[in-house]
Write a structure and sequence with these properties.
seven-stranded mixed sheet; 16 helices; alpha/beta; 501 residues; six-stranded mixed sheet
């Protein structure tokens, strides 16, 4: 392998950002951050505790109660959001280098993250200017209108896969709505989150509207979720963590938006465009190192094309270039962390007794063994996987896929819906009637017909069953971060029963 690339001016210590100032943890605690290509520490980060969360929430509460941001006109806020978007794009090369270094994502896939993050801010800038609220009239009798008001301090807890872009999904609508925020990024990948402070400062966002506390979920995340002055929690991550957060939000009846795990099916019928389905289902599970919630990690293929599909898919999977994330030719890089590598490899071993291994199954042969040489997993394909297999039912979150045959449409639907998850689904058929009717019957928050995951920011993003609660995207995001207050005005005579007259 080529010499490991390290971005210039890499910080050796990451601090919290509270009330417009960089600060260490009040008690001085830190944790180490690993680089996934060598699995050695490259920096420390301040480890947030209850006291640090308290300080961040106090700064956010002050900015919300007494600062200018919530009271600014939508156009004034939008102008700041546009400036944020421009500042994000100006950082795109630096961001891609940092993101790849910190996550192990291939550089070519990291390069689009800044543009997507910037587009989130532009989109919500447009939305808050164009938004209108209801006025409901009964002529001569009554007028009702709606005041839309930001709720307060939002706690944002984000994952380690494509961290910067996924942080923008929450930061853009919460800030656009007039809320103040406390962001707790994933402890595996805090590097790119440190760019936000400089970006927001340069764009003119008032101090205290954005606050950042690094730390592990059980400490900083837990304190944020339980804080009585944080009425909103938006979380993206694993389903079992989501259940814990759900329980911890109950005491204060907090608003919750949760995008959780997935085991999304890709259903390929005999009449599908075969080559397009192969391309898409390969990309759908092996892009982003397979570390994506919407990965099509269960591929259901109709019997008539099943063997041809498996053979073609396996041959292509064996040909995927695995290696240094900074090499532009790399298609699958290093997994994010040794803990996660061990989890994925444990599923690879389980799969060897649950399916027919047709590609991968361990470390790539051309890469040296040993944790110090990176957490690399060869794209792994299991065929003939039964629906009760663990690799069919459980989220692996790595470059591992299960392929299962079906005969009839009814069987395909039963297999597609046969997990606790319901985030995404991908359907490949040229039968228009079947496509729409089948999509309607799939238990998934999002369905793509004859496509991989191509997102329209106006549409709802979210899952059903164990895959989530609520939706992000478009006005649904604005609805989450705002209260809608109804004001009723009577225009006519009010006929009130005269109690006690």
């Amino acid at each position: 392998m080529s010499k490991h690339f390290v971005p210039e001016n890499l910080p050796t210590h990451l601090q919290h950002y509270i009330g417009g100032q960089w600060v260490d943890s009040i008690n001085g605690e830190t944790f180490e951050i690993l680089d996934p290509v060598t699995n050695t520490p490259y920096a420390t980060a301040a480890a947030g505790q209850q006291a640090d969360i308290d300080a961040a929430v106090a700064a956010a509460s002050e900015a919300f109660a007494n600062g200018p941001w919530p009271k600014m006109k939508p156009r004034e806020r939008a102008n700041v959001l546009y400036a944020i978007a421009d500042a994000v794009v100006a950082q795109q090369d630096r961001l891609a280098e940092m993101e790849t270094f910190d996550t192990g994502l291939p550089i070519t896939q990291a390069k689009g993250q800044a543009q997507r993050a910037a587009e989130n801010f532009r989109f919500f800038a447009d939305l808050i200017v164009a938004q209108q609220d209801n006025a409901l009239k009964v002529p001569g009798s009554q007028i009702n209108y709606v005041n839309r008001k930001p709720i307060g301090v939002a706690g944002l807890i984000t994952p380690w896969n494509t961290p910067f872009m996924l942080e923008s999904w929450k930061l853009a609508p919460s800030i656009a709505s007039g809320c103040a925020v406390v962001l707790k990024p994933a402890e595996f990948t805090p590097l790119s989150a440190s760019l936000w402070a400089e970006i927001f400062e340069s764009a003119g966002l008032p101090a205290g509207v954005f606050n950042l506390v690094n730390g592990i979920g059980e400490e900083a995340g837990d304190a944020l979720v339980k804080h009585p002055n944080v009425p909103l929690i938006s979380f993206t991550g694993e389903s079992s963590t989501g259940q814990l957060i759900y329980r911890n939000c109950a005491a204060h009846l907090k608003g919750m938006s949760m995008e959780l795990g997935g085991k999304s099916p890709a259903i390929v019928f005999e009449d599908a465009d075969f080559d397009a389905a192969i391309d898409s289902t390969l990309f759908g599970v092996f892009s982003l190192n397979g570390e994506r919630c919407t990965a099509g990690s269960r591929i259901l293929v109709q019997r008539g094309i099943y063997e041809k599909f498996v053979d073609t898919y396996a041959a292509r999977a064996k040909n995927i270039k695995v290696g240094d994330p900074h090499d532009p030719a790399t298609q699958v890089g290093a997994l994010v962390h040794p803990e996660h590598y061990d989890k994925v490899m444990s599923y690879v071993e389980i799969g060897k007794s649950e399916g027919r291994l047709v590609a991968g199954g361990g470390r790539p042969e051309h890469l040296p063994e040993g944790q110090e040489n990176g957490s690399y997993v060869a794209p792994t394909v299991f065929a003939d996987v039964a629906p009760d297999a663990r690799i069919f039912q459980e989220e692996i979150f790595g470059p591992v896929v299960a392929i299962t045959p079906f005969d009839t449409e009814e069987e395909a639907l039963e297999l597609a819906n046969n997990t606790k998850y319901g985030l995404a689904a991908y359907l490949w058929t040229n039968d228009l009637k079947r496509a729409h009717n089948f999509a309607q019957s799939i238990e998934a928050g999002m369905v793509w017909l004859n496509s991989h995951n191509v997102r329209d920011l106006r549409s709802p993003f979210g899952g059903v069953k164990a895959s989530g609660l609520g939706h992000e995207g478009g006005y649904r995001s604005i609805d989450f971060y705002t209260d809608q207050q109804a004001v009723h005005i009577t225009l006519g005579d009010v006929h009130t029963p005269k109690f006690g007259a």
